């Protein structure tokens, strides 16, 4: 876990954050691969993409599917642990198993949740 957090931390430098200057790096873990991403902002702020979604979309773009995913790591340098925004929780509920781990880290601390724990009763295909 520590090693993956270290590797994810490397991707903070790739965040494109001219507006918030807040860097977020993420890593999707499958049985045998790691897929990294960072947050990418836009002058039209709402079009910005969080680090979690960058990593998840990158993994899916490489053929990864829900059942392959064991965990997502989210790393910042904030003083407090950064928890995923609502949009990312919804995307995690669609693209990750509900029992997959969501591992959050800053320089001092690691906290572990699950997709279900962060978004219970999620809206999904079965909700329609
Ligand atoms: N952000 C993430 O990438 N992940 C989170 O979990 C929270 C917020 C990004 C979005 C934006 O680029 C910046 O952090 C400030 O909100």
TrEMBL record:
Listed cofactors: Zn(2+)
Record: active site: 52 (proton donor)
Keywords for this protein: Hydrolase, Metal-binding, Zinc
Statement: the UniProt record of this protein carries the keyword Repressor: no
A Gene Ontology molecular function term of the record: cytidine deaminase activity
InterPro entries named in the record: APOBEC/CMP_deaminase_Zn-bd, CMP_dCMP_dom, Cyt/Deoxycyt_deaminase, Cyt_deam_tetra, Cytidine_deaminase-like
Pfam families the record matches: dCMP_cyt_deam_1
EC number: 3.5.4.5
Gene3D superfamilies: Cytidine Deaminase, domain 2
Positions bound to substrate: 39-45
Binding residues for Zn(2+): 50, 85, 88
Metal-binding is among the record's keywords: yes
Reactions catalysed according to its record: cytidine + H2O + H(+) = uridine + NH4(+); 2'-deoxycytidine + H2O + H(+) = 2'-deoxyuridine + NH4(+)
Domain CMP/dCMP-type deaminase: 1-126
Enzyme class, spelled out: hydrolase
GO cellular component: cytosol
Family: Belongs to the cytidine and deoxycytidylate deaminase family.
PANTHER family reported for this sequence: CYTIDINE DEAMINASE
Function: This enzyme scavenges exogenous and endogenous cytidine and 2'-deoxycytidine for UMP synthesis.
Protein name per Swiss-Prot or TrEMBL: Cytidine deaminase
